[in-house]
Amino acid sequence: MPMNYARFNLVTLSLVVAVARAGSISGGAKAVNLAMAAASKRLADFEAQIGIAIFYRRSHGIELTEAGRAILNDVLNVLEDVERLARNIGDFSSGERGHVRVWANPAAISETLPDDVASFVRLYPYITVELEERDSAEAVKAVADNRADIGVFADMIDTARVETFVYREDVLSFIVPAKHPLARKGSTTLEEALRYPFVGLLARTPLAARVDYESARLGVVPTVRVQVRGVEAMCRMISAGMGIGVLPTSSARRYLKPMQLRAVTISEPWAHRQLFIGIREAQALPHAARLLLGHLRSSRAAPS
Asked: How many angstroms separate the CA atoms of 217 and 210, rounded?
Protein backbone atom coordinates (compact mmCIF):
# COMPACT_ATOMS: atom_id res chain seq x y z
CA MET A 1 0.00 0.00 0.00
CA PRO A 2 1.22 3.55 -0.70
CA MET A 3 2.75 5.38 2.28
CA ASN A 4 0.58 8.02 3.95
CA TYR A 5 2.97 10.95 4.25
CA ALA A 6 0.56 12.86 6.51
CA ARG A 7 1.66 10.65 9.40
CA PHE A 8 5.10 12.28 9.38
CA ASN A 9 4.24 15.17 11.68
CA LEU A 10 7.20 17.54 12.15
CA VAL A 11 6.55 17.92 15.87
CA THR A 12 6.60 14.14 16.25
CA LEU A 13 9.81 13.83 14.22
CA SER A 14 11.41 16.52 16.38
CA LEU A 15 10.29 14.60 19.45
CA VAL A 16 11.88 11.37 18.14
CA VAL A 17 15.23 13.14 17.79
CA ALA A 18 14.94 14.86 21.17
CA VAL A 19 14.10 11.60 22.98
CA ALA A 20 16.96 9.77 21.26
CA ARG A 21 19.39 12.49 22.34
CA ALA A 22 18.07 12.78 25.90
CA GLY A 23 17.75 9.03 26.47
CA SER A 24 14.36 9.52 28.10
CA ILE A 25 10.84 10.54 27.14
CA SER A 26 10.76 13.17 29.89
CA GLY A 27 13.98 14.75 28.67
CA GLY A 28 12.86 14.71 25.05
CA ALA A 29 9.45 16.14 25.92
CA LYS A 30 11.07 19.00 27.82
CA ALA A 31 13.34 19.78 24.85
CA VAL A 32 10.36 20.22 22.49
CA ASN A 33 8.04 21.82 25.08
CA LEU A 34 5.55 18.96 25.36
CA ALA A 35 3.98 17.41 28.43
CA MET A 36 5.38 13.97 29.14
CA ALA A 37 1.99 12.26 28.72
CA ALA A 38 1.43 13.97 25.38
CA ALA A 39 4.94 13.06 24.22
CA SER A 40 4.52 9.42 25.24
CA LYS A 41 1.21 9.20 23.35
CA ARG A 42 2.74 10.83 20.25
CA LEU A 43 5.55 8.27 20.19
CA ALA A 44 3.21 5.33 20.72
CA ASP A 45 0.81 6.57 18.01
CA PHE A 46 3.68 7.16 15.58
CA GLU A 47 5.12 3.68 16.12
CA ALA A 48 1.65 2.18 15.63
CA GLN A 49 1.11 4.16 12.42
CA ILE A 50 4.39 3.12 10.81
CA GLY A 51 4.33 -0.40 12.22
CA ILE A 52 7.87 -0.17 13.62
CA ALA A 53 9.12 0.01 17.21
CA ILE A 54 11.59 2.90 17.37
CA PHE A 55 12.45 2.71 21.07
CA TYR A 56 12.96 0.08 23.75
CA ARG A 57 11.33 1.20 27.00
CA ARG A 58 13.77 0.28 29.78
CA SER A 59 13.51 0.87 33.50
CA HIS A 60 16.51 3.20 33.29
CA GLY A 61 15.32 5.10 30.22
CA ILE A 62 14.84 4.84 26.46
CA GLU A 63 17.05 3.11 23.88
CA LEU A 64 16.78 3.12 20.11
CA THR A 65 15.89 -0.16 18.46
CA GLU A 66 17.89 -1.30 15.45
CA ALA A 67 15.16 0.15 13.20
CA GLY A 68 15.21 3.37 15.22
CA ARG A 69 18.94 3.77 14.74
CA ALA A 70 18.52 3.13 11.01
CA ILE A 71 15.91 5.84 10.49
CA LEU A 72 17.23 8.47 12.95
CA ASN A 73 19.67 9.95 10.45
CA ASP A 74 16.88 10.19 7.86
CA VAL A 75 14.70 11.99 10.39
CA LEU A 76 17.54 14.43 11.07
CA ASN A 77 17.92 15.08 7.35
CA VAL A 78 14.19 15.75 6.98
CA LEU A 79 14.23 18.27 9.82
CA GLU A 80 17.34 19.97 8.42
CA ASP A 81 15.69 20.20 5.00
CA VAL A 82 12.61 21.80 6.55
CA GLU A 83 14.79 24.25 8.49
CA ARG A 84 16.68 25.09 5.30
CA LEU A 85 13.39 25.55 3.44
CA ALA A 86 12.14 27.95 6.09
CA ARG A 87 15.36 29.97 5.97
CA ASN A 88 15.34 30.11 2.18
CA ILE A 89 11.70 31.21 2.08
CA GLY A 90 12.54 33.95 4.54
CA ASP A 91 15.59 35.01 2.55
CA PHE A 92 13.82 35.19 -0.80
CA SER A 93 10.59 36.68 0.48
CA SER A 94 12.48 39.67 1.89
CA GLY A 95 14.97 40.19 -0.93
CA GLU A 96 18.50 40.31 0.41
CA ARG A 97 17.63 39.64 4.03
CA GLY A 98 19.01 36.71 5.94
CA HIS A 99 21.25 35.39 8.69
CA VAL A 100 24.56 33.57 8.28
CA ARG A 101 26.33 31.54 10.97
CA VAL A 102 30.14 31.58 10.69
CA TRP A 103 32.59 29.74 12.94
CA ALA A 104 36.23 30.69 12.43
CA ASN A 105 39.58 29.94 14.01
CA PRO A 106 41.57 32.65 15.86
CA ALA A 107 44.01 33.21 12.99
CA ALA A 108 41.20 34.18 10.61
CA ILE A 109 39.47 36.43 13.15
CA SER A 110 42.74 38.14 14.10
CA GLU A 111 43.59 39.09 10.55
CA THR A 112 41.40 39.29 7.44
CA LEU A 113 37.97 37.87 8.27
CA PRO A 114 36.57 40.86 10.22
CA ASP A 115 37.34 43.23 7.35
CA ASP A 116 35.84 40.83 4.81
CA VAL A 117 32.68 40.42 6.87
CA ALA A 118 32.42 44.18 7.41
CA SER A 119 32.67 44.88 3.67
CA PHE A 120 30.02 42.20 3.03
CA VAL A 121 27.60 43.75 5.54
CA ARG A 122 28.09 47.15 3.90
CA LEU A 123 27.03 45.58 0.60
CA TYR A 124 24.10 43.70 2.15
CA PRO A 125 22.96 45.71 5.19
CA TYR A 126 19.91 43.50 5.80
CA ILE A 127 21.96 40.33 6.19
CA THR A 128 23.29 39.65 9.69
CA VAL A 129 26.44 37.60 10.23
CA GLU A 130 26.85 35.65 13.48
CA LEU A 131 30.61 35.17 13.91
CA GLU A 132 31.99 32.81 16.55
CA GLU A 133 35.67 32.25 17.34
CA ARG A 134 36.39 28.53 17.72
CA ASP A 135 39.33 26.28 16.98
CA SER A 136 39.57 24.71 13.54
CA ALA A 137 38.28 21.28 14.53
CA GLU A 138 35.19 22.78 16.15
CA ALA A 139 34.51 24.93 13.08
CA VAL A 140 34.64 21.94 10.74
CA LYS A 141 32.37 19.86 12.99
CA ALA A 142 29.87 22.71 13.32
CA VAL A 143 29.58 22.96 9.53
CA ALA A 144 29.25 19.19 9.14
CA ASP A 145 26.54 19.11 11.85
CA ASN A 146 24.69 22.10 10.34
CA ARG A 147 25.33 24.29 13.39
CA ALA A 148 27.26 26.73 11.19
CA ASP A 149 26.72 27.69 7.56
CA ILE A 150 30.37 28.55 6.89
CA GLY A 151 33.58 27.59 8.68
CA VAL A 152 37.05 29.10 8.37
CA PHE A 153 39.86 26.86 9.55
CA ALA A 154 43.48 25.81 9.10
CA ASP A 155 44.88 22.80 7.28
CA MET A 156 45.68 19.44 8.93
CA ILE A 157 41.97 18.93 9.66
CA ASP A 158 39.79 16.03 8.52
CA THR A 159 37.44 17.74 6.08
CA ALA A 160 35.82 14.65 4.56
CA ARG A 161 32.34 15.83 5.54
CA VAL A 162 32.58 19.36 4.11
CA GLU A 163 33.40 21.11 0.84
CA THR A 164 36.49 23.32 1.07
CA PHE A 165 37.93 26.35 -0.71
CA VAL A 166 41.26 28.08 -0.12
CA TYR A 167 40.73 31.38 1.71
CA ARG A 168 44.11 32.87 2.77
CA GLU A 169 47.72 32.04 3.52
CA ASP A 170 48.77 31.86 7.16
CA VAL A 171 52.36 32.14 8.50
CA LEU A 172 53.51 30.63 11.80
CA SER A 173 56.18 32.10 14.10
CA PHE A 174 57.88 31.23 17.36
CA ILE A 175 56.60 33.61 20.04
CA VAL A 176 59.27 34.23 22.69
CA PRO A 177 59.89 36.66 25.57
CA ALA A 178 61.80 39.79 24.59
CA LYS A 179 64.88 38.69 26.60
CA HIS A 180 64.87 35.09 25.37
CA PRO A 181 67.99 33.88 23.48
CA LEU A 182 65.91 33.31 20.34
CA ALA A 183 64.59 36.88 20.43
CA ARG A 184 67.90 38.11 18.98
CA LYS A 185 67.41 36.00 15.85
CA GLY A 186 65.45 37.04 12.80
CA SER A 187 64.57 33.43 12.06
CA THR A 188 65.28 29.96 13.38
CA THR A 189 64.35 26.29 12.98
CA LEU A 190 62.19 23.97 15.03
CA GLU A 191 65.25 21.88 15.83
CA GLU A 192 66.87 24.83 17.57
CA ALA A 193 63.64 25.91 19.26
CA LEU A 194 63.10 22.44 20.72
CA ARG A 195 66.07 23.04 23.05
CA TYR A 196 63.72 25.23 25.10
CA PRO A 197 60.50 24.49 27.03
CA PHE A 198 57.22 25.12 25.22
CA VAL A 199 53.82 26.50 26.07
CA GLY A 200 51.43 24.39 23.99
CA LEU A 201 47.86 24.54 22.77
CA LEU A 202 45.48 21.73 23.65
CA ALA A 203 46.47 18.50 21.92
CA ARG A 204 43.38 18.26 19.70
CA THR A 205 44.02 21.56 17.91
CA PRO A 206 45.56 21.44 14.40
CA LEU A 207 48.44 23.70 15.42
CA ALA A 208 49.42 21.42 18.31
CA ALA A 209 49.20 18.44 15.96
CA ARG A 210 51.45 20.22 13.46
CA VAL A 211 54.14 20.96 16.06
CA ASP A 212 53.99 17.40 17.39
CA TYR A 213 54.23 15.97 13.87
CA GLU A 214 57.21 18.08 12.87
CA SER A 215 58.95 17.40 16.20
CA ALA A 216 58.44 13.65 15.72
CA ARG A 217 60.09 13.89 12.31
CA LEU A 218 63.15 15.25 14.12
CA GLY A 219 62.95 12.47 16.70
CA VAL A 220 62.32 14.93 19.53
CA VAL A 221 59.41 15.24 21.97
CA PRO A 222 58.77 18.90 22.94
CA THR A 223 59.07 19.75 26.62
CA VAL A 224 55.64 21.24 27.25
CA ARG A 225 55.35 22.96 30.61
CA VAL A 226 51.73 23.98 30.27
CA GLN A 227 48.89 23.64 27.76
CA VAL A 228 46.38 26.40 27.23
CA ARG A 229 43.33 27.15 25.14
CA GLY A 230 43.59 30.23 22.99
CA VAL A 231 46.09 32.75 21.67
CA GLU A 232 45.90 35.27 24.50
CA ALA A 233 46.38 32.60 27.17
CA MET A 234 49.46 31.29 25.38
CA CYS A 235 50.96 34.76 25.05
CA ARG A 236 50.38 35.42 28.76
CA MET A 237 52.14 32.19 29.73
CA ILE A 238 55.06 32.98 27.43
CA SER A 239 55.29 36.48 28.88
CA ALA A 240 55.37 34.93 32.36
CA GLY A 241 58.43 32.89 31.39
CA MET A 242 56.76 29.49 31.09
CA GLY A 243 58.31 28.76 27.70
CA ILE A 244 58.02 29.62 24.02
CA GLY A 245 55.18 28.88 21.63
CA VAL A 246 54.12 28.53 18.01
CA LEU A 247 51.32 30.78 16.78
CA PRO A 248 50.10 32.41 13.58
CA THR A 249 51.98 35.69 13.34
CA SER A 250 48.75 37.55 12.61
CA SER A 251 47.06 36.17 15.73
CA ALA A 252 49.94 37.03 18.06
CA ARG A 253 50.70 40.48 16.64
CA ARG A 254 48.37 42.41 18.94
CA TYR A 255 50.02 40.92 22.06
CA LEU A 256 53.68 41.37 21.17
CA LYS A 257 54.29 44.94 22.34
CA PRO A 258 51.98 44.95 25.41
CA MET A 259 53.43 41.68 26.72
CA GLN A 260 57.04 42.33 25.66
CA LEU A 261 57.17 39.41 23.25
CA ARG A 262 58.94 38.82 19.96
CA ALA A 263 57.86 36.89 16.87
CA VAL A 264 60.71 34.88 15.36
CA THR A 265 60.25 33.59 11.82
CA ILE A 266 60.19 29.81 11.40
CA SER A 267 62.50 29.21 8.45
CA GLU A 268 60.84 25.97 7.32
CA PRO A 269 58.15 25.21 4.71
CA TRP A 270 55.68 23.74 7.23
CA ALA A 271 55.32 27.18 8.85
CA HIS A 272 53.41 28.38 5.78
CA ARG A 273 49.91 26.97 5.93
CA GLN A 274 46.56 27.75 4.35
CA LEU A 275 43.25 28.84 5.76
CA PHE A 276 40.19 27.23 4.21
CA ILE A 277 36.51 28.05 3.88
CA GLY A 278 34.28 25.06 4.52
CA ILE A 279 30.59 24.50 3.77
CA ARG A 280 28.30 21.50 4.08
CA GLU A 281 26.85 21.59 0.58
CA ALA A 282 26.94 24.55 -1.82
CA GLN A 283 23.51 24.00 -3.39
CA ALA A 284 21.84 23.61 0.00
CA LEU A 285 23.21 26.85 1.47
CA PRO A 286 20.67 29.55 2.32
CA HIS A 287 20.70 32.45 -0.11
CA ALA A 288 22.42 34.82 2.33
CA ALA A 289 25.16 32.26 3.07
CA ARG A 290 25.79 31.76 -0.66
CA LEU A 291 26.28 35.51 -1.01
CA LEU A 292 28.81 35.57 1.83
CA LEU A 293 30.63 32.52 0.46
CA GLY A 294 31.03 34.23 -2.90
CA HIS A 295 32.24 37.41 -1.20
CA LEU A 296 34.86 35.58 0.87
CA ARG A 297 36.11 33.62 -2.11
CA SER A 298 36.44 36.76 -4.24
CA SER A 299 38.25 38.57 -1.41
CA ARG A 300 41.13 36.11 -1.71
CA ALA A 301 42.42 38.20 -4.62
CA ALA A 302 42.52 41.29 -2.41
CA PRO A 303 45.67 42.18 -0.48
CA SER A 304 45.87 40.44 2.89
From this structure: 11
